[in-house]
Amino acid sequence: MRIINSSAQLVTDINRAEVMSLIERAGRVCYKSEGNIGDGTADKFIANIIARGHESVIEHVSLTVHVICDRGVSHELVRHRIASYSQESTRYCNYSAGKFGNELTFIAPCFWTEESPEYAQWRTAMEQAERAYLNLLSMGAKPEQARSVLPNSLKTELYVTMNLREWRHFLRLRTSPRAHPQMRELALQIKSLLTEKLPIIFQDI
Predict the structure, then answer these.
(1) What digits encode the pLDDT tens for the residues 98-124?
(2) Is 48 left (phi over 0), alpha (psi -120 to 50) or beta?
(3) 161, 62 in Cβ contact below 8 A?
(4) What is the CATH topology of the domain spanning 1-13+61-205?
(5) CA dihedral 113, 111, 190, 106 (to 10 degrees)
(6) CA 140 to CA 136: how far, in whole Å?
(7) pLDDT in tens, 159-172
């Protein structure tokens, strides 16, 4: 059994200048102000349209993030419908196979410390789930059958693609203190990645 933390990695190779130029050119068509494009005009223009709520303009750019999280968090993540997802399948992945090390991987709950009795109880439950899963496979069950004993804490991987407007919507909802702690943990990682690359788009969230 392996226990790891959730993580996010930006997959899209972003050229900030090109992204901002595209958004400015698209946005200025709305006002027929293309003649105002010049060196350094994109940031101010885009910041203004975002402040006015004219966010449809930033839908022209999409970004892909590689996410590692638990199955419970992934169920919340895929509820964001203006997006594309490719997710690790527990139906087809046989975790008793060599490429998985004949073990399950779980995401550590961020709300309990390893020294707490709650964490100890959680770890015991994960060990029992792994044992039951591997036993079922050894008895001849198919992975799609044995997966019925797998818990929400099972690690999963997704490629997630959203346009910039939907990423803003996602971050506004999922970085809120009211969000599930593990979802918020992941969303804050994604926010940091995106803000570093495109600060004008994400720094106000």
Answers:
(1) 999 999 999 999 999 999 999 999 999
(2) alpha
(3) yes
(4) Gyrase A; domain 2 (3.30.1360)
(5) 70
(6) 7
(7) 999 999 999 999 99
User: What pLDDT score was predicted for residue 81?
Assistant: 86
Question: In the chain, where are the structural domains located?
Answer: 1-13+61-205
**How do residues 47-104 score in pLDDT, each as one tens digit?**
999 999 999 999 999 999 999 999 999 999 999 989 999 999 999 999 999 999 999 9
Please, what's the largest Cα pairwise distance for the chain? 71
- Judge whether 104 and 129 are in contact, CB under 8 Å: yes
| Closest of 134, 131, 126, 113 to residue 155, by C-alpha | 126
Which 3 state secondary structure label does DSSP give 183?
helix
Query: Which residue has tokens 């770890």?
Result: 123
pTM for this entry: 0.94
- Residues belonging to the active site: 174
User: Which residues 6+ apart lie within 8 Å of 57 measured at CB?
Assistant: 23, 26, 27, 30, 46, 49
